[in-house]
Amino acid sequence: MGQVKQQIKSLIESLGLGRAADKARFYYQYLQQKGKINAFKAAHPGLPLPTPFMIYETFRLDYAKYLETGKSAAVSIYEEVSPFIELKGKSILDWGCGPGRVVRHFPDIIPTAQVYGSDYNSEYVNWCHENLKEITFTQNQLVPPIPLEAAAMDFIYAISIFTHLSEKMHMAWMNEIYRLLKPGGVFYFTTHGDITRKNLLESEQQQYDAGTIVERGNVKEGYRMYATYHPPAFIRQLVAGKFEVLKHRPGKAQNWGLEQDVWIIRKNG
Ligand SMILES: C[S@@+](CC[C@H](N)C(=O)[O-])C[C@H]1O[C@@H](n2cnc3c(N)ncnc32)[C@H](O)[C@@H]1O
Question: Could you give the number of structural domains in the chain?
């Protein structure tokens, strides 16, 4: 994104108009896509689908992609962590599951696993609870904890959650993930890394280059327009002492946009 576009975006957010602008964008897209949405629903009778606003807010307004990318993300998470942990028969948590895009596919991929999801948005949690019966859902608040027992999970993943949280919340949530994992348990999460640096204003790029987390925080924390960028050095420092870094895969420019970085870490002990 160009610097001018970024400056306009930053101005809209600093005026407190970020959420209103986003709602307007949603209605515009919805009107344009209404026919396609109705055709998709008609072609998939009986398939539980969240409301258009839910998939817009957590992903993008495209039901076919919600299903396709959710499944391919679940398969690729499974494959990418398999050198580090066997997931068959294990407990798995999707922290920040939204309306189930990824987690809904895990019971098919690993039928023997106990699958859990949690989110701070009660609408998503209620929808998931009503519609995805093979999975156990809980609601948490913006701040930890997740109402699950300590050392209950073998594997936790979080797709595009830290990308919407403040620095303070990174510390708190990394401690909560540590509490929830069994010793030796694995955490897979994504961040805005070097490839997304070009989306920052010049002053923010300087902050990023100095290894400091960058927060665009003029909207409600956790909401998709609250954007956070993570120099890899910041993440390594965040997890040091409690976790071992097993893998860092920097995001690349793809034909659909800029990929987030993937981190796979293991709880010490
Ligand atoms: C960009 S969406 C991603 C949703 C889902 N992981 C996916 O990939 O489709 C971000 C999600 O994080 C959730 N979220 C933000 N802060 C959270 C927090 N502190 N705890 C749990 N969920 C949170 C939002 O409600 C939203 O569902």
Answer: 1
pLDDT bin (cut points 50, 70, 90) of residue 205 is: very high
The domain that contains 40 carries what CATH number?
A: 3.40.50.150
Q: Is the distance from the beta carbon of residue 102 to the nearest atom of ligand 1 less than 6 Å?
A: yes
For ligand 1, atom 13, name the residue with the nearest CA: 96
Residue labelled with tokens 């895969």: 249
Q: Is 35 exposed, middle or buried (0-12, 13-18, 19+ CB in 10 A)?
A: exposed
Strands 91-95 and 153-158: parallel
115 contacts 220 by C-beta, under 8 angstroms: no
Look at residue 17 and tell me whether its pLDDT is greater than 80. Answer: no
Burial 238-260 (b: 16+ CB within 10 A, else e): bbeeebeebeeeebeeeeeebbb
Residue 72 belongs to domain spanning: 3-267
Verify whether ligand 1 is closer than 6 Å to residue 61 (CB atom): no
Rounded to whole angstroms, the Cα distance separating 261 from 176 reads: 21
Residue 48, preceding bond cis, omega within 30 degrees? no
* Under 8 Å between Cβ of 195 and 2: no
Is 140 a pocket residue for ligand 1 (Cβ < 6 Å)?
yes
Contact 97, 118 (CB under 8 A): yes
Answer yes or no: is the C-beta of 143 below 6 A from any ligand 1 atom: no
Using a cut of 0.90, tell me whether the model's pTM lies above it: yes
